[in-house]
From TrEMBL:
Sorted UniProt keywords: Amino-acid biosynthesis, Aromatic amino acid biosynthesis, NADP, Oxidoreductase
CDD domains on file: NAD_bind_Shikimate_DH (cd01065)
Annotated shikimate binding sites: S19, R20, S21, T66, N95, D111, Y229, Q257
Organismal lineage: Bacteria, Pseudomonadati, Pseudomonadota, Alphaproteobacteria, Hyphomicrobiales
Gene Ontology BP annotations: amino acid biosynthetic process; aromatic amino acid family biosynthetic process; chorismate biosynthetic process; shikimate metabolic process
Identification of the protein by name: Shikimate dehydrogenase (NADP(+))
Amino acid sequence: MSEPSATKAFVIGHPIAHSRSPLIHGYWLAELGLPGSYERIDVAPEMLAEFIAGFASRGFVGGNVTVPHKEAVFALLSTGGHELSDEARRLGAVNTLVALPEGRLRGHNTDGAGFVASVDEAVGSGWENEAGTAIVLGAGGAARAIVGALLDRGLRRIVVANRTPAKAEGLRRFAPERIEVVASADLAAPMREAGLLVNTTTLGMKGQPALDLDLADLPERAIVADIVYVPAETPLLAAARARGLRRVGGLGMLLHQAVPGFEAWFGHRPAVTPALRAAIEADIGAGA
Ligand SMILES: NC(=O)c1ccc[n+]([C@@H]2O[C@H](COP(=O)([O-])OP(=O)(O)OC[C@H]3O[C@@H](n4cnc5c(N)ncnc54)[C@H](OP(=O)(O)O)[C@@H]3O)[C@@H](O)[C@H]2O)c1
C-alpha cells in the first residue's frame, strides 16, 4: 500500500525566481512538522489557463498567485462555477487559490488584510480609532488592496496621491464619500491631519529613487508605513525614525498575507514570529 501523498502547494508568477513565499511556507512547514511542500512554478501567461484548469488533478491543493497573473486568474475564476471572496471581487485580483471538491476553485485576496495585520503587529490594535485621515501614496494593485482594507477597518477619510492622478481617481469608486484624491504637491494640509501615511509606490525600493516627501507636517501620533521591504529600512522609514514616529516596514505585510493560504492548504494557522522575520530578513540581506 502506498503512503498518502504529502500536501502540495505552489506560487505561480512570471518570472518567479525572486519570490520569497517558498521560504515563508517552508519555514512554517518545518516549524509545524508537517509533511507538505510549497514550490515555485514559473507559468508563462499563455500557459496560465491550462495550469489553473489542471493543478488540482496534479495533486496541488492550491497556491499563491503573483505578478503578472493576479488579474488574469480573477478573470479565469469569474466563469465556470468557481468561488471568489468579497476581497478578490472588490480588487478584481486573486493572490490565493484553494482547490475545492468537484474541480471548483476558490480565489481570495489577502494583501489588504495582510497590511492591516502588519500595522496591528507593529503598533497594537486600535490604531484605526485614532488615525483620522490616512494618506496612501500610489494607486497600483497594492494600493487598491490597502485602501479596501482601510475602509473595512472603518477609516473615515483616505487621501490618495499618485503620479498618474487618473489611477487614484479610479480608487474612489470603492467609497466616493470617504476617499479624496490630491496632487502630490498638495499633501501638506492632509499630512497635518494624518494618523497614518503609507507608501505603496515602488519609490524607495532597492534600485529605485527615494520617495521625496518632507514628513515635518505629520503629527507626532502619526504612523508611517512603507510596503517596500527591500531594503528593510527605506529612506521614508529612516526619515520617520529621525522624527521619532511609529513605523511599519513592508516585511510584515508579506508575512501576514501568507497566513490564510497556509491555513487553508495545510490545516494549521501559522504564526508570524520574530524568528520567521529574522530568517526572511537574513535571506533579503544575503540577496541585497
Ligand atoms: N510588502 C508586501 O507584501 C508587498 C505587497 C505588494 C506590493 N509590494 C510592493 O509595493 C510596491 C507597489 O506594488 P504594486 O503591485 O502596487 O505595483 P503597481 O501596481 O505597478 O503600482 C506601482 C505604483 O508605484 C507608482 N510609481 C512607480 N514608479 C514611480 C515613480 N518613479 N514616481 C512616482 N510613482 C511611481 C505607480 O504610479 P503610476 O500609477 O503613476 O504608474 C503606482 O502607483 C512594489 O514595490 C512592491 O514590491 C509589497
